[in-house]
Amino acid sequence: MIAKTIRTCFPIAAKAVADKAEDINKLNVFPVPDGDTGTNMSLTLASVVKELTSLSADADMEAIAGAITHGSLMGARGNSGVITSQILRGAAEGLIGASSPTTSADVAAALRRSVKVAFQAVRKPVEGTILTVLRDISTKADECEKKKLALDETLDAIVVEAYQSVARTPDLLPVLKENGVVDSGAFGFAIFLENFVAAALGRTSQVEDIATTFDASSAREGALGRVEIEANDDWEGSEFRYCNEFLFKAEKRFDEDECLKFLASMGDCELLVGAYPDYKIHVHSNTPNLVLEHMLQFGQVYEVFIHNMDMESHERTAKIHADQEAAAEPAKPLGFVAVAAGSGEGEILTSMGVDVIVSGGQTMNPSTADLLAAVEQVNAEAVIILPNNGNIRMAAEAAASACTDKQVLVVPTKTVPQAFSALFAVMPETPADEVAEAMAEAAAEVRDGEVTTAVRDSSAADGSPIHAGDVMGIISGSIDVVGTDVKQVTLDCINRMQDEEEGDTLTILAGSDMDDEAFEDLIAAIEEAQPDLEIDSHRGEQPLYPVIFSIE
After folding, report:
1. What are the phi and psi torsion angles at 149 (to 5°)?
2. DSSP string covering 343-381, please?
3. In angstroms, what CA-CA distances link 515 with 87, 493, 511, 522, 526?
4. SS (H, E, C) 101-133
5. Residue 161 to residue 381: CA distance in whole angstroms
6. Looking at residues 386-406, what average pLDDT do you find?
7. Which of 239, 320, 414, 538 is deepest in the core (most CB within 10 A)?
8. Spatial distance between the Cα atoms of 548 and 451, rounded to a whole number of angstroms
């Protein structure tokens, strides 16, 4: 039973942390900005999800624990990720012998094991961090066990305690109080715990935004009330500039204590976790090369990440300043969010007034959460979403329905060229619903085309065969031209469209698979074939589609 619960709930909780990763990142001030805590925690959790997914359907708790231990170790990123991996490892090991059904005693035992493993991994534990929260919830679980509380009461109690402990972190760690924030790793851990518990107890509340999934609002608000992001302009840097982390496979036995002493001599925040022969190593140092050379005496290093914490700090401060300046400005009447598959597409859309670009397109559709997060970034009373792909429309409409603090409308564009035309139709100082209607009408008038390569056998609109590897010309969603050459298929599409209805202007975007020379050659061929057609060419850099275009 417990194995199935973990497999079901872990991905839900991991996604909640990923959705809040940027908020967690902004809190990161302890003791220097060591990468991105939210990002690192979410990557660590994602690695566990991958391992759990690969298990057989009948995997028992021992196999689950092995997957959690291996996945979190291999995927651990940053100091926060490595410590999180040990918290997860300890809890999973503690649940191997859990009873069925699971009891409060099982939860308490698992958390005691988690405390032991996590604190052993850190040579110099610091109060006011994720470790403090872990110890506090373990103590609370012990109290619940003594009171013989039911499992759901115990789980709710430890989540309340987690947020209360997060709220106390500034009182334990001066650097947090100086910056007006709670500990970022502790906050991320509480988010994970709350969402895991909500899923385990079958609650259906939305969890993307730390929703009230049980009656613990005062605890949560106590923590959130201390989450006030400030730019740390007075930070003078750390004695150690680089965050080194890597995986290590030992080829012979070595003294782990001596290794930790060496790492400590190279810098601080040293961690060596795992068991022979697989380890994860983390340390802040000014000489990452010496750290790697030392470990090469005993085995192989791989998946090496070296982060410049000084640069990350300046980037973080600049972003916070930008966010604060944007928040201080009065909300404008109307803003825009658009999906773009390529960097060039995004640049063009931004130049046309789009506030936030969401990366996505064919084969990489953004989620409802991605679109909702983008909408929330726009400082406007109303926001219009341009999905630019038929497969993204439903996610866009779901995001619009989920947003409650501003009006959100969707103009159902299927391509980026449709979005261009829609944006040209925007009328300033006009109600948002009227603007959206005008944009939709403009988009519907666009005749567009795309050129791509078939990935499997099929048939064209006229029934002619298409073989994998053929070049396809798609006109307004219909596969009307099939050939072997991108240039010729593009020309055939444009000529056919001009024969059906002559246009004046061609807007054409080159994809990432078409280089400048080939694009220039294509433009020259179009000019020769259609001398009366005005051509507006750009690099869209979209993947999979070497050419997309529209004629108006």
Report:
1. -70, 155
2. HHHHHHHHHTT-SEEEE-BTTBPPPHHHHHHHHHHS-EE
3. 49, 20, 8, 11, 17
4. CCCHHHHHHHHHHHHHHHHHHCCCCCCCCHHHH
5. 37
6. 90
7. 414
8. 6
Q: What pTM, to 2 d.p., does this model score?
A: 0.54
Calpha distance 170→470 (Å, rounded): 62
Under 8 Å between Cβ of 210 and 222: no
Could you say which DSSP state residue 12 is in?
A: H
**Cβ proximity of 410 and 464 under 8 Å:** no
Query: Which neighbouring-strand residues pair with 506?
Result: 535, 551
Least-confidence region, from 18-22, 319-323, 392-396: 319-323
Alpha helices in 251-342 (DSSP H): 256-266, 288-295, 309-328
pLDDT-based confidence at 515, cuts 50/70/90? very high
The first and second tokens of residue 20, run together, are 């809040």
Cα angle: 488, vertex 539, 522; to 5 degrees: 20
| DSSP 8-class letter at 468 | T
Sheet containing 380-386: which strands, arranged edge to edge?
A: 356-359, 332-340, 380-386, 407-410
C-alpha to C-alpha distance for 158 and 163, rounded to whole angstroms: 9
Asked if 389 and 414 touch (Cβ cutoff 8 Å), the reply is: yes
Helix (H, G, I), strand (E, B) or coil at 296: coil
